[in-house]
Amino acid sequence: MITHSEKMKTPETWEQFLEFKPEFPAMIRRWMLVLRNMAIHTPANEDDLVGHLTMTVIVMSLSDVNDIMTLSHADSHIGALKLLRSLYERVVTLKYISQNPSEAEGFMEFDAVDTEKVMIAIKCKTGMEMGENAQKNLAAAASAAKKKYKQNRPLSWTPLNSKEMADRVGLGHMHLHAFLVASKHIHPTYWSVKSLGGSPLFNTLCIMHELIVQLIVLHRRHFTKAFGVTPMMNRAINDFLRIWTISEGTFDGILTQAHSSSSGGPPVYYA
Questions:
Q1: Residue 257 falls within a domain, yes or no?
Q2: pLDDT string in tens for the chain (271-residue length)
Q3: Residue 98 in contact with residue 218, Cβ under 8 Å?
Q4: How many domains are contained in the chain?
Q5: Is-above-0.85 flag for pTM?
Q6: Do the domain assignments include residue 106?
Q7: Range of 209's domain?
Q8: What would the 3-class secondary structure string for the chain be?
């Protein structure tokens, strides 16, 4: 658990968290509205695959954030943690593709493999199926994708696993909580039924907030071609630091001042 001092008890319930930072819900609501407006008002370019994915991921991420906040408010903190993995994977994947635009086509091509699996399952369960031409086109696209990416194990559009991809885009510091621990609760592991004590609320909300800022930065850098710090990026990062004081990530080098972690781990960053 991240804490600001050894004497401060980490909030474990929503009520305790609001005592810690009462302005947090309104702040998150405000940035959700900013992201929503970005999704609605950013001009679309059909040839811009990365831009298309950016807008799609923002829309889906808003649903994740809303659900995480709702569950946190209800003190359903394991449920919120499970949904954090979805948000985390979306942002990691988008950031990787943003930094490697040539991968966008492969990511979208591989959708044929996923769609084919779903359509086959629907047919087996209900007897409903696509039209003959649609089936042939989907089968051909899925076959081509399987052949193109057959060297990747498990079969995927990328040879990278979740940790490798996260490390490459500077989000590896979230992987333990947002992916590994979340996955242990999602899947039927004995680890998930053991009582380990403590609530994931604090770390879940901190990571969720950082991922919101990452989406702001990704959108502004892609659509404004700004590789420095725009006013909106600056406001988003400053709001994050108002709540959490320190950051385990640098937001791609925007934060440069650091000091050693009190636990002896990697350095933490501040404005």
A1: no
A2: 444 444 458 899 999 999 999 999 999 999 999 999 999 999 878 899 999 999 999 999 999 999 999 999 999 999 999 999 999 999 999 999 999 999 999 999 999 999 999 999 999 999 999 999 999 999 999 999 999 998 888 889 999 999 999 999 999 999 999 999 999 999 988 888 876 667 899 999 999 999 999 999 999 999 998 778 889 999 999 999 999 998 888 888 888 877 766 566 677 777 6
A3: yes
A4: 1
A5: yes
A6: no
A7: 14-100+163-238
A8: CCCCCCCCCCCCCHHHHHHHCCCHHHHHHHHHHHHHHHHHHCCCCCCCHHHHHHHHHHHHHHHHHHHHHHHHHCCCHHHHHHHHHHHHHHHHHHHHHHHCCCHHHHHHHCHHHHHHHHHHHHHHHHCCCCCHHHHHHHHHHHHHHHHHCCCCCCCCCCCCCHHHHHHHCCCHHHHHHHHHHHHHHHCCCHHHHCCCCCCCHHHHHHHHHHHHHHHHHHHHHHHCCCCCCCHHHHHHHHHHHHHHCCECCCCCCCCCEEECCCCCCCCEEEC
The two structure tokens encoding residue 144: 């081509």
In the structure encoding, which two tokens stand for residue 38, read together? 């970005």
| CA–CA distance, 94 with 50 (Å, rounded to integer) | 8
CA 175 to chain centre: 10
18 located within any domain: yes
- Alpha carbon distance 246, 241 (integer Å): 6
Residue 195, in any domain of the structure: yes
